Amino acid sequence: MPTYTIASGDTLWKISQDHGVTLAALTAANPQLTNPDLIYPGQELQIPSDSAPAPEPEARVPNEAPRDLASPAAPVSGYNVTRAPPAPPQMVPPPAPGVAHGPAYKTVAYFTNWGVYGRNYQPQDIPAEYITHILYSFANIRPTGEVFLTDTYSDLEKHYPTDSWDESGTNAYGCIKQLFLLKKRHRHLKTILSIGGWTYSANFAQPASTPEGRQTFARSAVHLLADLGFDGLDIDWEYPADPKQAADFVLLLRETRLELDRYAAHLRLPSRLLLTIAAPCGPTHFSKLQIRDMDPYLDFWNLMCYDFSGSWDKHAGHMANVFPAPGYDQLTPFSADRAVHAYVSQGVHPSKLIFGMPLYGRAFENTEGLGLPFQGVGEGSWENGVWDYKALPPAGHQEFVDGNLLASWSHAPGDQKLVSYDTPQVADMKVEYIKRRGLGGAMWWELSGDHPVSHERSLIRTTVNGFMRTGDLDRTPNTLVYPMSQFENLRRGLE
């Protein structure tokens, strides 16, 4: 039986295709691979010789020349559709300790405090080995500027099986305790309290407009951080409506940054406390922001590269495409690449931009296809027209990929319904885009929508695998010291 030595960048799928064997036959011939995800350069594989030849790659339509990801002006020539191959990427093992392994990428994911109910997504379900930053959402804002928790049962009171009912004193339970336990087990995992979100964003403008409101906001937010064991704060204001609110946003960030630094200096913390924002990708919104003035106060920007099309439109469109389709505005109302260039042109270093990806899809019904009119969006996982990624594609649907726009969708012949969402193939393409642009990593809304990372179609797994081929994850240590917390168990570090 011939042998093959694994080279850098190889996956089992690639090896099987290169040698004309099935993935199942290759795996069966190599029982020493107890975990097929963990292969590394230098390993020797047995190549079975009696398998059927590999199928010919499916023909692609003309005008499908690959886009130069490093060139913002690269044209889109025609509308390109390819069928997505079923193969998942394989996991690349982490580098040996102390060995330089390229850029350190941030992997940022939203965890919602309401997800513990109907979604039944608990903190213990977070794939912490794949995630560097958790955005815990959402806290709200009072008219005075005071930041407060929105669900104290989920946040602090819910008892998990390992929690005691007999501890004396005032203690934190719920998601807050479980996140702290995750931080202890995974010292690279940082937790950030996210404030606002779409539902509560209307509450920013009033307190941000006065020095007293901004000071109350900053002090109360840092007080929550100190009480609950967070590593930073995230401000999700969707969106400042005019130049006055945009200027107030800058002042709010400044006050919050100063308060974070005061607290860190008082405790002589070895790690910097983080300040981030959820950043829009629509020109109407990002053109109002004073980006250059905001940037010095921020550690990174979480770009919301999704919701480009949906129920509010008249035509079915891509909702998370990277590039635009010139002349097809109804197909791509917005594009992530335009937003990336807008922020960089205003002085933001590319490495501070975290590229957002959806873990859900948006549906369109009674439509002949993308770029065409639709009527209704149908049902969804939790709201009409919005499906968790793990529920996609719908039964009978075929997945398609546009290699020029870096976008994908599903559709069934004869079915006037399509769903716009990211597939593993597009996630891999977006990883390549992030690398070529020199961006800082990936962000996901939100964790409960993905498959478990043990699943071959997990988008988080696919993305992190892509980063690990040429780089590593951000290993900056988190903070475990919170001596000013009102909760005794957090003050003790859950010892």
Task: Describe the protein's architecture and organization.
The protein has about 500 residues and is an alpha/beta fold. The protein has two domains: about 5-45, Roll (Membrane-bound Lytic Murein Transglycosylase D, Chain A), CATH 3.10.350; about 105-360 and about 425-490, Alpha-Beta Barrel (TIM Barrel), CATH 3.20.20.80. It contains 14 helices and 18 strands. It has helices at about 10-20, 25-30, 150-155, 175-185, 195-200, 205-210, 210-230, 245-265, 285, 290-295, 335-345, 425-435, 460-470, 490; strands spanning about 5, 45, 80-85, 105-110, 135-140, 145-150, 190-195, 230-235, 275-280, 300-305, 355-360, 360-365, 385-390, 400, 405-410, 415-420, 440-445, 470-475. An eight-stranded parallel barrel has the order 4-5-7-8-9-10-11-17, surrounded by five helices. Strand 5 (about 135-140) and strand 6 (about 145-150) form a beta hairpin. Helix 7 packs across helix 8 (about 245-265) and helix 12 (about 425-435) runs parallel beside helix 13 (about 460-470). The longest helix is centred in the middle third of the chain and has 25 residues, at about 245-265. The N and C termini lie far apart (about 55 Å).
